[in-house]
């Protein structure tokens, strides 16, 4: 009998557990059985008092960050000192000055950038620094276009204007008649029926249709309860992203932190800060029911749910000012023809038939214009067509029908020819290349899979325990009528270089290799910028000593960090020459990855131009 009672009580307890505790990842119902709800998610609430005060970014500094303008001088460009270390020559070409700064060479080793206002710094990278560290106490600093050009968005319960002093529930931060419930230095908003969000700022009709491109509602938290950054947040700009210039559909963006979908993603999302890293996630947002309910244009309650003064303040229409531009401005140069395969067939290739478009691969080194930012978790991925000459070299045991697996990168230089590293060639394997793909685990409509007919490793290829020499190979692809890869938006050839490029020049590497957070390699193609390092510098005892010869060169960052790694081998290091990407290096080897004074070593392609030409033009079937 007692046991029955116990079970009955248990049963009741289960029934009465608040719905909140059981909420699914993406919910469609914002209220509990009371009809009222706390404006946050139980159990995993972020932005509690403790989180805010222990957050280094919101540290309150003596003087509140009001000191002089030069405070941040040294963080302008972390690669600056490497640049100096490498003692580049021909310093103004390519133009090292950003934001249209004019470069002037000063003697042999120095250059000066004449920066247009308001940009400053050695390379004109630094815009006005209105949001200095500590300026907003425990609050987010956002940029505005009117003086004083910044505004502090305090983290509740810290109060404006400088977000140093706190006051819990006074004034009431909850909107729409929400009741503020004090809990020590924390608070909860108890929202009226239908309202949700941490400040009850999300109304009952707040939902998105289709992919949420038209969404103009008030949700400002991610799926995991992270508070969204304002689109004009200084922190976003500081990370090289300017949302107002990065996305096609920026109408919905503004000086607020509401979720939006400005870039054709699947649903509204927002940026948030994770420690010192900028990242993003989809929002905790409701999809409109499809039964004819069209969301009424949701009038944002005000510009900022985290700012309790906002309902009295005039909504600001100020656009953010841009402090830094993520791209380097280049001097205007006329495009010279690069070393492309001539439209006339080479002896090794049969003339294209009527089925092959005559324009195939007529130019080289032209990628799709890169949108300034493409988001993936924990980093930025390569957008489609940004490295269209990159291929994945895949192998499987000879004559087996196992799955092909990625082993190395490669570079398309002609419809039927791929350059890769010599050490990527395994004689007992069948090989194929996949061009035009970004993801290794998803079959994409843009990709072309082509069998390798023949692998030609350089005759002087040599491996020692400390280095790999003449690490280059050519793959002849299988095709019909001289056409193997077909030129598309996503598949293009890189140009061959015709000159040595200056040390210190910024070039690009890419691949599916090992990254900091993926030991087995990345499923998504990634790219990074590296600097060419002088041979002398790289042959110093603390770097690679005497093992280097002229079939290789170093590139990367001597302080460590950005580097290629296992799985990237054979892939491209391309540099810009006359506005075309030339294949200057192939990922070859390195002492582990990303270590200080151990940059990546790349095959020096300029050393093998005659070899490449002789092989690709030889009259072989
Ligand atoms: N050998 C490696 C591969 O086969 C490439 C290593 C590059 N290492 C470096 N630190 N850059 O994929």
Task: Explain how this protein is built.
The structure is a single chain. The protein has 621 residues and is mainly beta. It has 7 helices and 25 strands. It has helices spanning 2-16, 49-53, 80-85, 234-238, 243-246, 535-538, 609-617, and strands at residues 37-38, 102-106, 110-114, 139-143, 150-154, 179-183, 186-191, 269-274, 277-282, 375-376, 379-380, 390-397, 405-414, 417-420, 429-435, 448-457, 462-463, 468-469, 473-477, 506-511, 526-533, 552-556, 572-577, 580-589, 600-604. A 6-stranded antiparallel beta barrel has the order 12-13-14-19-16-15. The chain has a 6-stranded antiparallel β-barrel with strand order 20-21-22-25-24-23. It binds arginine (ARG).
DSSP strand tally: 25
Please identify the structural class as seen in this structure: mainly beta
The gross shape turns out to be globular
Helical segment tally?
7
- Spatially, the strands of the biggest sheet line up as 12-13-14-19-16-15
The major sheet is characterized as:
6 strands, antiparallel, barrel
Task: Look at the structure and give the mean pLDDT.
Answer: 77
The molecules bound to the chains, other than polymers, are: arginine
Which range does the strand content fall in?
A: 15-25%
The stretches of 5 or more residues where confidence is low (pLDDT under 50) are 5-37, 39-43, 64-89, 307-357, 374-379
Helix coverage percent of residues?
under 10%
- How many angstroms separate the termini? 90 Å
Radius of gyration: 29 Å
């Amino acid at each position: 009998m007692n046991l029955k009672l116990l079970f009955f009580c248990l049963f009741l307890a289960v029934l009465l557990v608040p719905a909140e505790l059981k909420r699914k990842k993406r919910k469609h119902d914002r209220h509990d059985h009371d009809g009222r709800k706390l404006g946050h998610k139980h159990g995993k609430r972020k932005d509690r008092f403790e989180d805010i005060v222990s957050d280094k970014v919101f540290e309150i500094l003596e003087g509140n960050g009001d000191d002089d303008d030069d405070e941040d001088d040294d963080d302008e460009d972390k690669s600056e000192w490497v640049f100096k270390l490498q003692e580049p020559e021909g310093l103004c070409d390519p133009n090292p000055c950003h934001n249209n700064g004019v470069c002037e060479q000063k003697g042999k080793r120095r250059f000066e950038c004449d920066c247009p206002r308001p940009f400053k710094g050695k390379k004109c990278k630094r815009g006005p620094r209105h949001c200095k560290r500590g300026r907003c106490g425990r609050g987010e600093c956002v940029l505005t276009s009117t003086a004083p050009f910044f505004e502090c968005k305090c983290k509740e319960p810290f109060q404006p204007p400088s977000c140093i002093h706190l006051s819990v529930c006074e004034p009431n931060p909850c909107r729409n008649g929400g009741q503020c419930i004090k809990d020590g230095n924390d608070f909860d908003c108890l929202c009226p029926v239908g309202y949700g969000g941490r400040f009850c700022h999300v109304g009952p009709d707040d939902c998105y249709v289709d992919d949420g491109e038209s969404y103009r509602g008030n949700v400002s938290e991610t799926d995991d309860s992270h508070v969204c950054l304002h689109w004009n947040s200084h922190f976003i700009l500081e990370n090289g992203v300017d949302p107002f210039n990065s996305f096609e559909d920026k109408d919905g963006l503004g000086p607020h932190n509401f979720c939006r979908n400005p870039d054709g993603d699947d649903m509204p999302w927002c940026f948030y800060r994770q420690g010192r890293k900028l990242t993003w996630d989809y929002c905790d947002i409701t999809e409109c029911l499809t039964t004819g309910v069209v969301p009424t244009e949701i009038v944002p309650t005000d510009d900022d749910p985290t700012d309790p003064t906002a309902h009295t303040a005039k909504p600001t229409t100020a656009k953010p000012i841009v402090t830094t531009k993520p791209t380097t401005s280049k001097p205007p140069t006329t495009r010279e023809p690069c070393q492309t395969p001539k439209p006339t067939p080479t002896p090794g290739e049969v003339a294209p038939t009527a089925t092959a478009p005559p324009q195939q691969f007529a130019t080289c080194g032209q990628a799709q214009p890169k949108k300034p930012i493409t988001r993936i978790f924990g980093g930025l991925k390569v957008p489609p067509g940004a490295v269209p000459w990159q291929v994945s070299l895949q192998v499987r045991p000879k004559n087996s029908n196992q799955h092909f697996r990625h082993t190395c990168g490669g570079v398309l230089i002609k419809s039927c020819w791929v350059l890769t590293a010599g050490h990527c060639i395994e004689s007992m394997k069948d090989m194929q290349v996949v061009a035009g793909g970004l993801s290794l685990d998803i079959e994409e409509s843009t990709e072309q899979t082509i069998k390798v007919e023949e692998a030609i490793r350089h005759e002087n290829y040599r491996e020692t325990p400390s280095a790999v020499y003449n690490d280059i190979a050519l793959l002849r692809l299988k095709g019909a009528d001289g056409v193997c890869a077909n030129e598309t938006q996503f598949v293009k050839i890189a140009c061959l270089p015709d000159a040595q490029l200056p040390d210190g020049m910024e070039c690009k590497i890419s691949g599916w290799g090992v990254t900091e957070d993926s030991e087995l390699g990345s499923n998504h193609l990634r790219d990074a910028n590296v600097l060419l390092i002088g041979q002398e510098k790289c042959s110093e005892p603390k770097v690679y000593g005497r093992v280097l010869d002229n079939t290789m060169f170093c590139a990367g960052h001597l302080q460590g960090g950005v580097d290629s790694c296992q799985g990237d081998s054979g892939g491209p290091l391309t540099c810009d020459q006359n506005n075309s990407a030339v294949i200057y290096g192939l990922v070859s080897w390195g002492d582990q990855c990303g270590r200080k004074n151990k940059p990546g070593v790349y095959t020096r392609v300029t050393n093998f131009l005659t070899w490449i030409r002789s092989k690709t033009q030889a009259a072989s079937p």
